[in-house]
Amino acid sequence: MKRYFGRKVLIYFLTFFLAVTIDWMIPRFMPGNPIQTMLSRAQLHAGAYERIYDYYAGLFGLDLPAWQQYLNFWKALFHGDLGISVLLFPTPVTKVIMNALPYDLFLLVPAILLSWFAGNWFGAFAARSKWLDNTISPLGYILTATPYMWLGIVLAWAFGIVLDIFPISGGYSFALRPHLSWTFIGSLLQHWFLPFASLFLVKFGGWAIGMRNMIIYELEADYAHYLEALGAPKRLVRQYAFRNAILPQLTGLALDLGIIVAGALATEIVFSYPGIGYLLLGAIQNKDYFLIQGCFLFIILGVLLANFIIDIAYVLVDPRTRTGMMGEAS
Amino acid sequence: MSLQVENLRVYYQTLRGDVRALDGATFTIEDGEIMGLAGESGCGKTTLGHSLIALTPPMRFVEGRVTLDDEELPVWDMERMNDFRFKRISIIPQYAMNAMNPTRKIGKMTSELLESRKVEYKSTLPELKRRLDLVELTHDVLSMYPIELSGGMKQRMVMVLSTLLNPSLLIADEVTSALDVSTQKAVSEMLVGFRDREFVKSLIVITHDISILYQIADSILIMYAGQLAEKGPTDAIIHSPRHPYTKLLISALPKVGVKYAERKLEGIPGNPPQLLDPPVGCRFRDRCPVAFGKCLEEPPFMEVEKDHFVACWKEFERNA
Amino acid sequence: MTESKKKNEILYFALRNNKLKLGVAVLFVFVVLTLIGPLLTDYAPYDYVGPPYHPPSAEYWFGTTTFGQDVFTQFILGLKATFMVGIIGGGLATLIGVVVGFTAGYRGGVVDEVLNMLTNIVLVIPTLAMLLIIAAYLTVRGVLAESVFIGCTAWPWAARAIRAQTFSLRSRDFVDLARLSGMRSWKIILSQIAPNMMSYLLLVFILQFGGAILTAATLDFIGLGPTNAVSLGLMMNNAVLWGALLLGMWWWFVPPGVAIMAIVGALYVTNVGLDEVFNPKLREM
Q1: Cβ–Cβ of B57/C285 closer than 8 Å?
Q2: Is A234 at the interface with chain B, CB within 8 A?
Q3: Nearest chain A Cα to C244, which residue?
Q4: Residues of chain A with pLDDT > 90: what percent?
Q5: What pLDDT is stored for residue B121 in this prediction?
Q6: How far is B274 from chain C (nearest CA, A)?
Q7: A221 touches chain B (CB under 8 A)
Q8: Which of A22, A218, B219, C182: disulfide with A241, CB 3.0–4.6 Å?
Q9: What values do phi and psi take at B258, rounded to 5?
């Protein structure tokens, strides 16, 4: 057991190391001088340009040899310093990301959890009767085949423009500033609903289909036939099938939660919702390399962490994986 | 009187029509009798075994009557059969090694199964432990997962589980097929032990290996192409078979001590007929060395000696 | 079962499977549309051909954009781009996935570990980052570039699936038999393992096809797609950019989305149908 985990940790560290290195290389691979390109987009008058350029040149040690720049990057990383954003100058990148993160969590956590529960529940039901299966399955396939942003657009148009129930852009009304009051919370929820719905519906389809397939597979298993032959009530067989089917679904859930930090790029763009995804778009369009770098770092960390936790949790939860660790020939 | 089966017909529904896998089985098993059920692959023995306990689609009940201990078994009704399953009639399936839920500890699964059948686990536990001792499994298995047991241990566990409630009739479906010879002996002896200790009243042992039946069975029922060919006491079947198919089967068995140079091992040339549209009359007719005109008519399964039944016109002629 | 008998059996069930028939039918409609579409329109996608903001009419079947371009023309050519990305991107991803997954599964040991790590790295690297760099260098890029990019980043899933399948096949008895009889490695792969994997590979390819289309749509939408072609994702991007939402020009953004939904949905359903055909246990009575 220890050897297994030891090896896993090592592999994760290696992967992290490599991914961060690639992340560091991003601005340096862009054609031209990143700082120059960056600054040429900011409207600065002559005096300021000189000072800021020197500041950055010093900060990122562009006059230093590459390997030293690389080391400085790691040092800054451990201090939680990801540089200064150009798009939202002079806010540090870390602060920018932290400002956007709550919106992502607010949007994605309910969307992921609710769609997972609802989808698995419906999927399990679909596996019970042919009639249910014939209604839920096609719906599930259509939903999961729908591109996120398109559903977002359609919902925005239908409920936002035509029916005029919900707003279609922003995280909250532009007339307000974030503060604690019912008005603000109400506005927050109003702006939250359509993006949430578009994410929820597509994910729901995916989970429902996945669960239905897993349960059907389990119901065909030998242990299900044996229980049936010994007269066990359908309830017990379904209970076992459900519990076995949900294990791989848990992996999927953990993965989804892990990449929460990546935001829901397409959906946020459609609704101009101020999450990390939207931030990333702005960064891309304005070539704010340091913001891009920071966002990606966040995402990498989140994904690696989530994967690691899944690996551990799965071994604990499913006894079947334990023999794999003893190095048995697969 | 333990088990009576009258004219049982069970077909398989397929897109191309009904496959007549079990076409008219009539036989009796007494209390305490171990009946072997043997034949080639596809002869219908597994269909027979399963139709007695769980007649699930694609199997389809056509006609017949099954009586267990003077009570009719509603084999066509999956719901009503539940009252009989596990308590009056039970099965050790062919897939015994995979029959337990891999993500549940064995003890937990057993207790949940028993409780769901309205049997109190706590009061059954002492007897369960005694039986584990009998098959040489430690009590620890109850707190283990199936994956922690070897194939043989899993099979023994399933054997204990299936017989826990002392059913009248136990169906053992190819329980020795995947085992090595010494384990085959141990498992076969366990089956006899169940009967001797009265854990079960009678057994149907389904196998294609007649040599095992020679060791443990009181009587043997030979099936061919979905129909019964011959049934009789083990000695009679092995040493004085009446049906031409049985005769060829027995002579096809290798005998210890006999060398190939001395006596060639003959198989039975040809293949069994497909059962989607089976041939008229006796189904063995095409491969039978002594077939004649009358064989175009289906021979009935008749008693030719005490407790010895055959379905063969040639044999009826001899008797007459 | 003899080879020809097996093929006949598969064909028999294939012709009877409703899901397969439905999926293939829908795909067929779209393929025909893509092929004959250009004959149905005289315009080029970005030409200013008519009055702007025009809803669908007899002359402009899908209406016009804010600039007076013909939406139908854009739609037809967008379909072509979509299929190309699906085939090339999905095909490339499957190919790489086969090479990596099969080698890892067949060889095992150190080779497996190394390939596993490679797969993990590719999974974790933000593909957007790579795309940004590429976009900065290739200011003019086409559908082919996008397809290749998607193919090179979508293969980890396929590799994992194929590796698992290879593991299960490798330990089957008939492979051991072949090895014992002294058959050479490559011959074992070709004659014993490959035929059993064929059906699985087809299923993997279909899923990659659908996935590539969805990914391309998203990339196009963000503006990281091809610069010199029309695509369905690009249509949606333009629509939102130029206020189609606010102006209620549903004919601009609804058709591309419906098309993607229909094509990818048909692919998924075909996948399920094929699975049923290949796997006897799943067949319905």
Answers
A1: yes
A2: no
A3: A157
A4: 12
A5: 93
A6: 15
A7: yes
A8: A218
A9: -90, 130
Residue percentage of chain B with pLDDT more than 90: 55
> Which chain B residues touch C16 with a CB distance below 8 Å?
15
Predicted confidence (pLDDT) per residue in A95-130, tens digit: 888 888 888 888 888 999 999 999 999 888 888 877
Picking from A23, A150, A160, the nearest residue to C129 by CB comes out as A23
- Residue B49 identity (one-letter amino acid): G
**Nearest-Cα residue of chain C relative to residue B59:** C285
Structure tokens at B276: 């989607």
Domains and CATH numbers, chain B: 3-88+167-319 (3.40.50.300), 96-165 (no CATH)
Q: Which two tokens stand for residue B75?
A: 């084999």
pLDDT beyond 90 at A40: no
Tokens of C253: 């953004």
Average pLDDT, chain B: 89
Q: What are phi and psi of B104, to 5 degrees?
A: -125, 140
Sign for the pseudo-dihedral over CA of A103, A144, C208, A311: positive
Tens digits of residue pLDDT in B27-50: 999 999 999 999 888 888 999 999
- In tens, the pLDDT along B45-73 reads 999 999 999 998 889 999 999 999 989 99
Q: Which chains contact C through at least 3 pairs of Cβ atoms less than 8 Å apart?
A: A, B
Q: Name every chain A residue with its beta carbon within 8 A of the beta carbon of B81.
A: 231
E-only strand ranges, chain C: none
Whether residue B58 has a cis bond before it, omega within 30° of 0: yes
In this structure, how many other beta carbons lie within 10 angstroms of the beta carbon of residue B54? 22
Tell me the pairing of strands B202-207 and B219-224: unpaired
How high is the pLDDT of residue C280?
A: 64
What's the pLDDT score for residue C248?
81
Chain C residues whose CB is inside 8 A of the B58 CB are 285
Dihedral angle over CA of A170, A171, A176, A182, nearest 10: 140
Question: Among B93, B89, B92, which residue's Cα sits nearest to residue B75?
Answer: B89
Cα A83 from Cα A27, distance rounded (Å):
13
Rounded to the nearest 10°, the torsion over CA A282, A284, A289, A291 is 40
- pLDDT tens, A271-315? 888 888 888 877 777 777 778 778 878 777 777 777 777 777 777
Of B102, B117, B147, the CB nearest to A231: B117
C227 neighbors C139 (Cβ within 8 angstroms): yes
Ranges in chain C, pLDDT < 50: 1, 284-285
Which sign, positive or negative, has the C-alpha torsion A89, A91, A92, A97? Answer: negative
Min Cα–Cα distance to chain C from B54, Å: 18
Global ipTM: 0.89
Residues A300-319, buried b or exposed e (16+ Cβ, 10 A)?
bbbbbebbbebbeebbeebb
CB of C37 closer than 8 Å to CB of C8: no
The reported pLDDT for the residue numbered A319 is 67
Is C1's Cβ below 8 Å from some Cβ in B? no
Candidate from A11, A141, A168 with C-beta closest to C265? A141
CA pair distance B172, B93, nearest whole angstrom: 7
Which residue on chain B is closest to A235 by alpha carbon? B116
- Is the link from the previous residue into A90 a cis peptide, with omega within 30 of 0? yes
- Answer whether A15 sits within 8 Å of C217, measured CB to CB: no
| Count of A-C CB contacts under 8 Å | 123
Quote the minimal CA–CA distance from B179 to chain A in Å. 19
Kindly determine whether residue A231 and residue B112, on different chains, have CB atoms separated by under 8 Å.
no
Cβ pair A141:C269 closer than 8 A: yes
Residues of chain C with C-beta less than 8 angstroms from the C-beta of B16:
none
Q: Report the alpha-carbon distance of residue C30 to residue C115 in Å, rounded.
A: 38
pLDDT at A70 over 70: yes
Q: What per-residue confidence (pLDDT) applies to A88?
A: 67
Q: Do B57 and C16 touch (CB under 8 A)?
A: no
